[in-house]
Amino acid sequence: MSALASATLLMLALAAPPALAQSSPVDELPLEDIQTFAEVFERIKRAYVEEVDDSTLLRNAMRGMLSELDPHSAYLDRSEFQSLRESTEGEFGGIGIEVGLEEGRLTIITPIDDTPASRAGLQARDVILEIDGNPTERLSLQESVTLMRGEPGSQIRLNILRSGQEAPLDVTLTREIIRTESVRSEMLEPGYGYLRVSQFQSRSGEQVNNAIRRMERDGPLQGLVLDLRNNPGGVLQAAVAVADAFLQSGLVVYTEGRLPDTQMRFSASRETAAPDVPLVVLINGGSASAAEIVAGALQDQRRGVIMGTESFGKGSVQQVMPLGNGEGLKLTTALYYTPNGRSIQAMGIEPDVRVVRGRLEVTESSRQLREADLEGHLRSRSEPRAMTQEMSERLREDYQLGEALNLLKALNVLERR
């Protein structure tokens, strides 16, 4: 292929669609740069140590074009496009982690609940140095994700760098079919519910409403913990639907971009599953994107108390655009803003009450024997059913969750006065 032919090909490939074409000088194609690009293309074809086909070179060029924009824009080949669809629909093969690039390093945003990654103890902010011996510094984000996905039953070895530890860790995991139920609920105590949203999928809003109705079968809720910790985000409309479960009116989120169809506003509807239930929302450094939309909306509308640590700070919106060849384009097209006009991009949500992760230790000397501790004690008619040992241990292990429950109880005390 001659340099002239390459330049012609590149001009055709890069030409803007008619709907977007403008006559202003800003939108004119930089012919000199395109000619330089074609010259590089030609020299690689002619002189590189190994033969490289045109298709590979062009796709690599497109990947590079997008990867330099921001960490979330990417060119998706057929398998990558299919993987993205699977993850938003809630089923895929892999180990169950959400990853991103921080300062050029492949970093775990969050492990997904009840997956090989979470069971192996992988944590948000862990840096993945190698995947099956392949250094991740040489890989794009999409290439890393593709390497980590695979057939159920196959093994994968990750080399992990964790903050506070001197030496990297080698972790071997077995891939599974990851079927992610994005919403889980249970009762912490009579009247106090727990709602965990692990990521935002297309049916998350419906699942939240169903979970609230289930928890209310035994009586009205006196308080609810909405756990968005280590929630990496997901579908924007699902975040709006989850926030709508607690809001009767008002703005939830709005987006602003260059094109008219990226400037959108989403408001709450009157149909609300839990409009008046006292609410504590847990967030941490793994709460990103759609999780921050929900936390920001509830914070701005003073609907709940945000507790935990500062969130991740991903305030951009990506559109997934299918291409005619079965591949796709994931492109950042807008920024989202909370109802009060706050941009979360690179800032995050600051909690109203800062509570760091920890474990509550109760020493023997600080615990005095009480009548209720005696085996066979007479039960008062008004004595509530005892909390299960499993739940009690969980609240000791999860200090943030225990503090959220205590805050809900305090809010109820103040409400009665």
Automatic annotation (TrEMBL):
Pfam families: CtpB_N-like (PF22694), PDZ_2 (PF13180), Peptidase_S41 (PF03572)
Residues in the signal sequence: 1-21
Stretches assigned to the PDZ domain: 81-149
Annotated keywords: Hydrolase, Protease, Serine protease, Signal
Biased composition annotated in UniProt, kind: Basic and acidic residues: 367-384
Classification via InterPro entries: ClpP/crotonase-like_dom_sf, CtpA/B_N, PDZ, PDZ_sf, Peptidase_S41A, Tail-specific_protease
Keyword Hydrolase: yes
Region of interest (Disordered), residue spans: 367-392
Family annotation (SUPFAM superfamilies): ClpP/crotonase, PDZ domain-like
PANTHER family the UniProt entry points to: CARBOXY-TERMINAL PROCESSING PROTEASE CTPA, TAIL-SPECIFIC PROTEASE
Family affiliation: Belongs to the peptidase S41A family.
Protein name as catalogued: S41 family peptidase
Species this chain originates from: Billgrantia aerodenitrificans
